[in-house]
Write a structure and sequence with these properties.
Layout lengths: L4 H29 L2 H22 L2 H7 L5 H32 L5 H8 L1 H18 L3 H24 L4 H22 L14 H31 L2 H14 L1 H20 L4 H38 L6 H17 L3 H7 L3 H22 L4 H26 L4 H26 L4 H38 L1
Helix pairs in contact: 1-7, 1-11, 2-4, 2-5, 2-6, 2-9, 2-10, 3-6, 4-5, 4-6, 6-8, 7-8, 9-10, 9-15, 10-13, 11-12, 11-14, 12-13, 12-17, 12-18, 13-16, 15-16, 17-18
């Protein structure tokens, strides 16, 4: 293959990190024009739309990538099937919109959901062209596509928010981002749909998709459960604060976890006959993700009490404790997250589905039990659940490939220690500094913590990168 692991991951991560950094810069501006209730209503509207978006792809793109031979008729059949599914999902969402608004007693959810209903159709039309780009190893082109789409969305939300559009600025951002990405995928991909006839049997793809859909719906349900529970129990404004904390917490997943998992899946699938080699690649990806994710989240948690009001305005001050309490759990989840694509690469989707059912039920129960006690209780419940469930999660992964749990925990130990020290230093210093000084201190402490971690753990980090490069050269 002409492109190495580092080039592919680097291009995807560069685009996503650029967009993530742009979002960080955009949020302080948008947060001054929108209220917590606006963010809460958007979170509730997306709470139902995101499920339809998952169904619009159904994992069939991943299934096409796994096939050793590219069959144009097969790809064309999947495209037209997904186009029909996307159109049907759009109509279903329009019909569900008034029910969703009545459920949460928020009248403006009706037009929000009805407008956002176009997203699953756009996602369905982009799925097969995007899968062809992944199969062709055109990750730099994918990065360009997503960067342009992201920038178009950012431009729209900035202008709309400044013009007083309120929550509709967030809606416009999502629609423009999806439409731009779909148009560019159609233009840049080597896939071209033929006439909708002569369909080939898709039974094996549908079996793969059924397990993948079930798992994706469960993981999304796990993520959306706090949103819906908080929205129902506490209302839109507290949910808006939680949603803002989530926006910062998901930046590492979007900018780092997603690109690494995307590239790792393609390469793991190519080595699916050797579970031991796949397990080694999983361990290496955990070590790299732990290094990249744990320390930044810890640093922001330590400085958050001063930084969040400084960046977003004083009315968002309550975001800081929510972020700090949830950050450790989210960091662990991201560091170990490539187990998901490992299940897919080894065609153990049914096993992944069973694990996802268990995890979603238990996590939702934990959140529901904590919700009556407020946002901070929910954030703490997320971290406590992650700490308690990760050994079980890794045990599930071990059924697919020979993974040593102790090795995974050791991979996270050094970043956790460095992050803990960085958090303590900033937590002590932040109360004595103003916003600008705290921001400068945060950047300095992050650079110092990473540098120390590289010096002390360089052998393990070098071994992890060597394993990844060796596996993907």
């Amino acid at each position: 293959m002409s492109k190495t692991f580092l080039i592919n991951v680097g291009s995807l991560s560069a685009s996503r990190l650029f967009l993530a950094a742009s979002q960080v810069l955009v949020l302080p501006f948008v947060a001054r024009f929108l209220s917590p209730a606006d963010f809460g209503d958007m979170a509730l509207a997306m709470g139902v739309v995101v499920f339809a978006q998952l169904l619009s792809d159904a994992g069939l793109g991943r299934s096409l990538i796994r096939q050793p031979k590219l069959d144009p008729a097969e790809w064309n059949s999947v495209f037209w099937m997904l186009a029909g599914v996307g159109a049907a999902l759009m109509l279903v969402l329009v019909a569900v919109a008034p029910v969703w608004a009545a459920l949460f007693d928020r009248a403006r959810l009706l037009p929000l959901v009805a407008t956002l209903a176009v997203l699953p159709l756009l996602g369905a039309l982009a799925a097969v062209p995007t899968a062809r780009m992944e199969r062709d190893d055109r990750f730099p082109a994918l990065s360009l596509m997503r960067t342009v789409a992201g920038l178009a969305g950012i431009a729209v939300v900035l202008v709309s928010a400044a013009m007083g559009a309120g929550v509709w600025a967030l809606v416009a951002q999502q629609v423009v981002l999806a439409a731009t990405q779909t148009a560019m995928a159609a233009a840049m991909s080597r896939f071209r749909p033929g006439a909708p006839r002569g369909f080939t049997p898709l039974g094996h793809h549908l079996r793969f998709a059924a397990d993948n859909i079930g798992t994706s719906l469960l993981f999304t349900g796990q993520t959306q459960a706090p949103v819906m529970i908080l929205g129902y129990i506490l209302g839109a404004a507290p949910l808006g604060l939680f949603s803002m904390a989530q926006r910062f917490l998901t930046l590492p997943r979007t900018g780092l976890g997603g690109p690494i998992a995307q590239v790792v899946f393609v390469r793991m699938a190519a080595r699916q006959a050797d579970p031991g080699a796949v397990a080694d690649l999983y361990l290496a990806s955990c070590r790299v993700l732990a290094f990249l994710v744990i320390v930044p989240l810890a640093v922001l948690a330590g400085a958050g009490e001063t930084l969040f009001p400084f960046l977003l305005s004083d009315r968002w001050a309550a975001v800081a404790p929510v972020f700090a309490l949830a950050a450790p759990g989210i960091a662990i989840e991201i560091a170990t997250s490539t187990a998901g694509v490992m299940f897919q690469a080894l065609d153990r989707t049914r096993l992944r589905l069973r694990m996802a059912v268990e995890r979603m039920v238990l996590r939702t129960l934990a959140v529901a039990a904590a919700a009556p006690f407020g946002l901070e209780a929910v954030a703490l419940a997320i971290t406590l659940f992650s700490l308690a469930y990760t050994p079980r999660y890794l045990a599930w992964a071990n059924r697919a490939a020979p993974i040593a749990q102790t090795a995974i925990w050791r991979a996270m130990a050094a970043p956790a220690a460095a992050g803990g020290l960085a958090w303590g230093a900033l937590w002590i210093a932040a109360g004595r500094l103003d916003g600008a000084q705290t921001l400068a201190a945060t950047v300095a402490v992050l650079a110092l913590a990473w540098s120390v971690l590289v010096l002390l753990d360089r052998r393990n980090l070098r071994a992890a990168m060597s394993a990844l490069k060796g596996g993907f050269s």
